[in-house]
Amino acid sequence: MKNLFTTKKAIFAVGLVIGLIAAFLQFNGNPANMGVCVACFCRDIAGALGLHRADVVQYLRPEIIGFVLGSLLSAVAFKEFKPRAGSAPVVRFVLGFFAAIGALVFLGCPWRALLRLAGGDPNAIAGIAGLVAGIWIGILFLKAGFNLGRSQNTYTAAGLILPVIMAGLLILLLARPQLSTGAPFFSVKGPGSMHAPVIWSLLAGLVIGILAQRTRFCTIGAVRDVILVRDFYLMAGVLGLVLGAFAANLFFGQFHPTLDVQPIAHTNTFWNFTGMVLAGLAFTLAGGCPGRQLFMSGEGDGDAAVFVFGLLLGAAFAHNFGVAASPKGIGEWTPLFVTIGLASCITIGLTMIKKIG
Amino acid sequence: MERIDARGLSCPQPVVLTKSFIDKTDSGEFEIIVDTGTARDNISRLAGNCGWAVAVRTESDDIVLTLIK
């Protein structure tokens, strides 16, 4: 079937819609400059499941659930649901783990970096610069022949595992069972307690999931394709996102350009930059940004699903071990684990090179 | 006709493989076999940008792109 969404105008329009939706979700309760953030929202889900103890960031974010289920709906409707798996899953898990760590040192995934920029946070510039640097390093490995090997077609049920887990999380969110252990955990203060009504968050996630599945929207691919093949298709989507969010932020009175005291952000330029170098490199080696990994999971990609599990565990680890930053600055083990993450990703890039013909 | 197998590869490898072929030849005809709509769209866009005509057909579960210039 011909895909009518694969023009620059179409993906620019989709980017605009995503930006508008993100600002709208913030206006309706999501944390500031965090209408949508895949890293932060995975961290919140990890918290709700009790994988970490930071009680200010625990919530089962319906946007993430919607991303996966929306992509699944779209993939099935357009006959693009293709169960596949087996391309170095454990490596993808590790890449997801360190991508989460890098993003949580900056305090945002690439999507939030763009939303922070559109909200007037100048600290985002260091993060975006780091992201570009990380992607550039990843491209050096790609050019040298880095790849994680081929995936294989697999069972439909295998391709449905992450969507089914997401449906389970949705049931958990809606049913809100109160176990004696306290699980599932929901923040009563802090960013985890700030959220738009469930139905709006879920609908927003579903709409974004469908549109992104159609357009292949990817914030990492945007930069990568410009550097690697001078292709500005995905970049048009990213520009749309920034402009859409910027316009909507002006409309909602959410644009606050100040040098310091930005919400859920810190001003340490070096670690904003370096955290995102790590995230950008890990995402590039894994083949796409965290949003894209969720959308691919919805299309039946079991390797992308393993990356998402890596994100969840990385986010939990980052908060349990003082690696994640906070508005006060970096954590005790931020330098240690960003260094370990960079060393790990560079080792992966250097040692997994094989010619494919 | 030369055929490149880009099935099962993550982004951007199908595009990288296609580009390496396009870069070393000025004209001709070759096929690339892929297994996702994303790879199909990405290769079609790259080929179009480089002045190659693209024909797409399905072959059982896979997608075959024929590039001609």
Please provide a brief summary of the model.
Chain A is mostly helical and 357 residues long. Chain A contains 15 helices and 2 strands. Classes of the chains: A mainly alpha (357), B alpha+beta (69).
Written account of the structure:
The complex is a heterodimer of chains A (357) and B (69). By secondary structure, chain A is an all-alpha fold. Chain A has one domain (8-351). Helices cover 64% and strands 1% of the residues of chain A. Chain A has helices spanning 8-27, 38-48, 62-77, 89-106, 110-118, 123-144, 156-159, 161-175, 198-215, 219-229, 233-252, 269-286, 290-298, 302-320, 334-351; strands at residues 84-85, 152-153. In chain A, helix 2 crosses helix 14 (302-320), helix 3 (62-77) packs across helix 13 and helix 4 (89-106) runs antiparallel to helix 15 (334-351). By secondary structure, chain B is α+β, with helices and mostly antiparallel strands. Chain B is built from 2 helices and 4 strands. In chain B, strands 1-2-4-3 form a 4-stranded mixed sheet, with helices on one face. Chain B starts with a strand and ends with a strand. Chain A binds chain B through residues 3, 6, 78, 80, 82, 84, 87, 142-143, 147-153, 216, 218, 221, 224-225, 228-231, 233, 286-288, 299, 303, 356-357, and chain B through 4, 7-13, 15-17, 19, 35-38, 41-42, 44-46, 49, 61.
